[in-house]
């Protein structure tokens, strides 16, 4: 009777796992875990998103209240427009040093990145910018101004209505 009891207990007790089997199972578990995590990583990779940048040629309506010499930056554009007695003109706001967007200031434009300063007509008055801000082609159609950011013009070129 006692032997039967011992035999039953021996059958219920888990067999000790040999060291070699344990290491093999651990390696297999680590491999499966690594595969699973790699799969999760692939699933979570950022998807390619192609977003169209705004066209560099656009039309805009100048505010009626725009004063001569007052800068007007159309929303979402890196261009500033001015209107004076000689016409309308546009100057790029992209710094000629490393491409930051310059900000209109009382004395012209200032670059927030490395401190270049530009006169109101875009020429450099303080480096490191190597070149003036380019003037861009503009044309007038009624109350609307067409700006072509792909075409630079001589500084001083203004569109008359
Ligand atoms: S990018 Fe404007 S000064 Fe450097």
TrEMBL record:
GO cellular component terms listed in the entry, alphabetical order: membrane
Domain of life: Bacteria
SUPFAM superfamilies reported in the protein's UniProt record: ISP domain
InterPro entries given in the database record: Rieske_2Fe-2S (IPR017941), Rieske_2Fe-2S_sf (IPR036922), Rieske_Fe-S_prot (IPR014349), Rieske_Fe-S_prot_C (IPR005805), TAT_signal (IPR006311)
Keywords of the record: 2Fe-2S, Disulfide bond, Iron, Iron-sulfur, Membrane, Metal-binding, Transmembrane, Transmembrane helix
Limits of the Rieske domain: 58-147
Transmembrane segments annotated in the record for this chain: 22-43
Cofactor: [2Fe-2S] cluster
GO molecular function, one term: 2 iron, 2 sulfur cluster binding
Protein name: Ubiquinol-cytochrome C reductase iron-sulfur subunit
Organism this protein belongs to: Thermogutta terrifontis
Phylogenetic classification of the source organism: Bacteria, Pseudomonadati, Planctomycetota, Planctomycetia, Pirellulales
